[in-house]
User: Fold this.
Amino acid sequence: MKEYYVKKIQHPQEGELYQFLELDAQTGEEQAIDPFESGMLQLYAEKEPAPEIFSITSKRGADATGFYRDAKFVVQRGSKFTASTSPKCPQKYIKLRENLVLDKLLVPFEHQFLLMEDTEFASPMMAMGAVIGGWVRGSHDWKET
Assistant:
């Protein structure tokens, strides 16, 4: 049985980084892994019909997927948020991103932020503002996949 976890490390040039590790329970050995290739961020099977999935990308590095759940919008685990916010980004999106980082739901990963768990947002517009780190006009940028 293998266990996955994230470890914060201090890099001499890059500063604070996160390392994705796999622990072999039988041998006790740790191994650095790619969270996508290892299956660490593998989506688990849904017991109900699969929701309609929407996606959004941006030139600044966002690459996220999400779906509607009742009146909320859920951004899926493994989605990538932009590393920074635009100069005109509303304070509510900046605060939302800061809270996700403080709750360890959003961690730095290769010039982006990686979402560690499916996360509910009040609306697709709030989700999009947090993902792209900028001003949004509506949920029209979430595209059907």
Notes: The first strand starts at residue 2 and ends at 11. Residues 73 and 121 are 5 Å apart (CA to CA). The first helix runs from residue 91 to 102. The helical segments are 91-102, 124-132.
